[in-house]
């Protein structure tokens, strides 16, 4: 790993550097696939960029492509080896989303009927059609913005708080 892309306080950077123990499954020039310290069950792997990337908002498109390719390869390997009934691919960004290691990583988790993984989605809630339509309008505008200013936490989309930043 290039030193300028290494965080000496990051455990996953330590795994990449070989200074932290890990059960490594695969490496590419851009990614590392390894078992978490406490996997849900055999076949649960993590895919992380080789360079330090804190979360999805710190991720560039080239690194995202490499991570995506490694996740797909890991999913196929998990299927071939463990024959799960299903699969979760989970990436959490931010403490409120349960990110506990602040180096972007994607969980590839084989799933089986009755396994110990909890339900991931809440029961459906009532929706406000006007609020959903406004969200679609704002998301389309953000995605069509020249230069994608929202990618680095700048631009009008973060300043136009509206009802979307209110906790419900």
- Main β-sheet, in a few words? 5 strands, antiparallel
Overall residue-averaged pLDDT value: 86
| Secondary structure tally: strands | 5
Order of helices and strands: HEEEHEEHH
In helices, the fraction of residues equals 25-40%
Beginning-to-end CA distance, first to last residue: 42 Å
Instruction: Estimate what percentage of residues fall within beta strands.
Output: 5-15%
SS summary, helix count: 4
Which structural class should the secondary elements be placed in?
alpha+beta
Radius of gyration: 18 Å
Strand order of the largest sheet: 1-2-3-5-4
Question: Which geometry do the CA atoms define?
Answer: globular
| Poorly predicted parts | 152-168
Structural summary, described in words:
This protein is of the alpha+beta class and 168 residues long. Helices cover 29% and strands 14% of the residues. It is built from four helices and five strands. A five-stranded antiparallel β-sheet has the order 1-2-3-5-4, covered by helices on one side. The chain is globular and about 50 Å long. The N and C termini lie far apart (42 Å). Mean pLDDT is 86; it is low at 152-168.
Any chance you could write out the topology, listing elements then pairs?
Layout: H1 11-17, E1 24-27, E2 31-34, E3 45-49, H2 61-82, E4 86-90, E5 106-111, H3 129-144, H4 156-159
Antiparallel strand pairs: 1-2, 2-3, 3-5, 4-5
């Amino acid at each position: 790993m290039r030193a300028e892309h290494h965080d000496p306080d990051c455990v996953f950077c330590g795994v990449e550097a070989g200074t932290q123990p890990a059960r490594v499954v695969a490496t590419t020039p851009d990614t590392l696939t390894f078992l978490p310290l406490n996997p849900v069950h055999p076949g649960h792997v993590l895919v992380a960029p080789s360079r330090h990337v804190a979360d999805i908002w710190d991720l560039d498109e080239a690194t995202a492509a490499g991570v995506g390719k490694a996740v797909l390869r890991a999913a196929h390997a998990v299927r071939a080896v463990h024959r799960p009934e299903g699969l979760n691919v989970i990436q959490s960004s931010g403490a409120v989303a349960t990110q506990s290691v602040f180096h972007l990583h994607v969980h590839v988790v084989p799933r089986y009927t009755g396994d110990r993984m909890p339900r991931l989605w809440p029961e459906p809630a009532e929706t406000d059609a006007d609020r959903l339509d406004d969200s679609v309008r704002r998301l389309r505008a953000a995605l069509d913005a020249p230069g994608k200013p929202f990618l680095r936490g700048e631009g009008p989309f973060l300043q136009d708080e509206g009802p979307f930043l209110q906790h419900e």
